[in-house]
């Protein structure tokens, strides 16, 4: 995405999300926030690149960690995003 580690520390992940993906991501967040430590979630979203000129598709695995959610992000292609979104919706 072009950001350095220090640029992302303490920054809300929501500020990087594509506006069309906010509702879906927020629903997953709320579902996991109310679940136990063994809960897991997956989603596909777009994150804004540092250059501000575009978006990068990302597959995300989520799990609660204390009062926060830990997100492991994997950059994927648009074709992979489409396929994964179909699989996760099923």
Secondary-structure topology with pairs:
Blueprint: H1 5-8, H2 22-33, E1 41-48, E2 55-65, E3 68-75, H3 78-89
CATH topology group: Beta-Lactamase
Instruction: Report the strand count.
Output: 3
Strand-residue proportion: 25-35%
Order of helical and strand elements: HHEEEH
Keywords: DNA-binding, Nucleus, Transcription, Transcription regulation
GO cellular component, one term: nucleus
Domain PAS: 1-37
GO molecular function: DNA-binding transcription factor activity, RNA polymerase II-specific; RNA polymerase II transcription regulatory region sequence-specific DNA binding
Question: What descriptive keywords fit this protein?
Answer:
single chain, 90 residues, alpha+beta, Beta-Lactamase, three-stranded antiparallel beta sheet, 3 helices, globular
Would you kindly provide a written description of the structure presented here, covering whatever features stand out?
The chain has helices at residues 5-8, 22-33, 78-89, and strands spanning 41-48, 55-65, 68-75. It has a 3-stranded antiparallel sheet. The model has no long low-confidence stretch (mean pLDDT 89). 31% of the residues lie in helices and 30% in strands. It is globular. With 90 residues, it is of the alpha+beta class. The chain starts with a helix and ends with a helix.
Task: Summarize the model shown.
This protein is an alpha+beta fold and 90 residues long. 31% of the residues lie in helices and 30% in strands. It has one domain: 2-Layer Sandwich (Beta-Lactamase).
């Amino acid at each position: 995405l072009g950001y350095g580690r220090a640029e992302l520390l303490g920054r809300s992940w929501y500020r990087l999300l594509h506006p069309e993906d906010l509702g879906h991501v927020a629903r997953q967040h709320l579902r996991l926030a109310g679940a136990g430590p063994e809960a897991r979630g997956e989603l596909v979203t777009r994150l804004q690149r540092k250059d501000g000129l575009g978006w990068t598709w990302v597959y995300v695995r989520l799990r609660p960690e204390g009062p926060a959610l830990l997100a492991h992000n994997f950059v994927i292609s648009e074709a992979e995003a489409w396929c994964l979104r179909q699989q996760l919706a099923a």
